[in-house]
Amino acid sequence: MKFKLILIFIFCYSYVCFSQNDLLSLIDNNTTEYSNYIFKGTKVVNSESVEMPDNGVLQFMIQHRFGTLNSGFYNFYGLDNSQVRMSLAYGINDRLSIGIGRSSSLKAIDSNLKYQLFRQSKGNKTFPLTICLNSSIVFKQYFKSTSENSIFLLSDQFSYSHQLLIARKINRKFSIQLSPTLVHYNLLSIDQFNNDLYSIGYGLRYKLSNRISVNLESFSQFNSQNKINPISIGFDVETGGHVFQFHLSNSAFMINRAFIHETYDLWSEGSIYFGFNISRVFTVKE
Amino acid sequence: MIRKILPLLFFISIDCYSQQYIANDGEITFFSYAPIEDIKAVNKKVSAAFDISNNDIVFQLYISDFNFRKKLMQTHFNENYLESDIFPKANFVGKVFALEDDSAIVRGLLTIHGVSKEIEANGMFIKNNNSIKISSEFNVKLEDYNVSIPTIVMYKIAEEILVNVVIKLNSKR
C-alpha cells in the first residue's frame, strides 16, 4: 500500500519535473528545413551553379580572364592580355532569375533564365537534390567584314544552351553538382560536324572556412570533334558585400558554348589562364 | 486510500491541461543599432506555450525564419553568424515570477547558437477571456552565445542586440 503510494508520488513528481519539456514538445512543430548556400556564387568557376540572386536582388558581376601563364615574361605571364565579361542578373522571385552579359573578345551578348525546379530539403518535405534549369541564348557578332558579306544570315550568329543543374549539399562543407548540357549552334565552325553538342559538367565545392571555399569544375564532351575538356580550379572569397572568385583554367571563355566546346589549351602545356570574378549585390526590391 | 487519491490525480492533470496557452504566430524582432547601418530582422513564426498552473513558459523559433530587409544580411546571419544549418532552433525555457498587475518577471534558460544562458526579463502579461498577450524587451550580448563578428565587415554590428517579443497565446481549448 505504502509502496504504491510512493510510486504515485514519484510519478507525480516526475510529471512536474518534465512539464517544461512537455510544454516545449507541445510547440515543437516540425518544419521543412531547406539546404541553402550550396555554392557561394552564381557560378562554380565558369559555369552556372544552382545559386541565383535572391528575390529582388540585382547582381553585378565582372569577370576577367588574363592570358596564358606560359606566354612568357614579354607578356608578363599573361597579365598583359585580358578579356572581360560584364553581366547583370536579377532575382524575379525566389525561383526565377534573369541575366544578361557581354563578353569582350568574343563580341558576344548572352542572356539567360534560371529556374529552380526542386530544392533540397529535409523535415516535413524531404527532397535530396536542388535542381535548376538554365537556358541561355548567345548572340555572337561576326567581325564587321564577315557580317557585310551577304551570305551570312542574322540567325547564324545565334547559339543556345540548355542545362539541368543538379546539386546536392552533402554536408555543410561539401557540395557537388552535375550539369547535363546541350549546346545548339545555328552555324558550325569548320571543325565541327554536329549542330547539337552534348556534354556533362561536374562541379565540386569544399568550404575551407566560413568565408573561403575551393571549387573544381570540369566538363566532358560527348560528340564534339574537339576532345579537349575544360578543367578549372578556383577559390571563392567572401568579404561582406562582395564575392571574389580567383581561378586557374585552361579556358579563357565565360559563356557556356565557348568554354565547353571551344577550349583548345592544355593544362599539360601550361596554357593556363588566371582569372577572377567579382560580384556585388544590390537590393532593389525589399 | 489509493482509490481516493487516484481520481484526484486524474483531475489535477486534467486541470493542468486546460491551463495551457499556446501560440505559433508570435513576433520576435531584433535590432542592432550601429553607426553605419541599423539592422533589424523579424520572425513572425515564433511559437510559445505558457502553463498558468505552474508558471512554466517556453518559446521556440527557427533561426532561418528571420527576415531581413537585405537578403545578403540574411545570408550572412544564417551562414556565418548563427550557423542555422547546425543550430536551426533557438528556444527559451523558463518560469514567470511575480505576476501581478499585468507585469511580471521571466527568468530562464535562453538557448541560441547551441549555447544556453540564464536570462531575466520584464514582461507584460495582458489576459483576456481566452488569450494572454505577452510582450517583452531585453538585451542579448552576442559574445554570450559565441556569435563572433569579424572586425572587417561591411556593416558594423552592435555587440548588444535589442530583442522585442510580441505574442498572443490562446487557451489550448
Descriptive overview:
Chain A is mostly beta strands and 286 residues long. Chain A has one domain: monomeric porin ompg (Porin). Chain A contains 4 helices and 14 strands. Chain A has a 12-stranded antiparallel β-barrel with strand order 2-3-4-5-7-8-9-10-11-12-13-14. A two-stranded antiparallel sheet of chain A has the order 1-6. In chain A, a hairpin with a 4-residue loop joins strand 10 and strand 11. The longest helix of chain A has 16 residues. Chain B has 173 residues and is α+β, with helices and mostly antiparallel strands. Chain B has one domain: Lipid/polyisoprenoid-binding, YceI-like (Lipocalin), CATH 2.40.128.110. In chain B, 16% of the residues lie in helices and 54% in strands. Chain B is built from 2 helices and 9 strands, in the order H-E-E-E-E-H-E-E-E-E-E. Chain B has an 8-stranded antiparallel beta barrel with strand order 1-2-3-5-6-7-8-9. Chains A and B meet through helix 1 and helix 2 of A and helix 1, strand 1, strand 2, strand 3 and helix 2 of B.
Question: How are the SSEs placed, and which strands pair?
Answer:
The complex is a heterodimer of chains A (286) and B (173).
Chain A: H1 2-17, H2 19-26, E1 32-34, E2 57-68, E3 82-91, E4 96-103, E5 108-118, E6 121-123, E7 130-140, H3 144-147, E8 158-169, E9 174-185, E10 196-207, E11 212-221, E12 231-239, E13 242-249, H4 256-261, E14 273-283
Antiparallel strand pairs in A: 1-6, 2-3, 2-14, 3-4, 4-5, 5-7, 7-8, 8-9, 9-10, 10-11, 11-12, 12-13, 13-14
Chain B: H1 2-18, E1 20-32, E2 39-51, E3 56-62, E4 67-68, H2 71-81, E5 89-100, E6 103-112, E7 115-127, E8 131-141, E9 160-171
Antiparallel strand pairs in B: 1-2, 1-9, 2-3, 2-4, 3-5, 5-6, 6-7, 7-8, 8-9
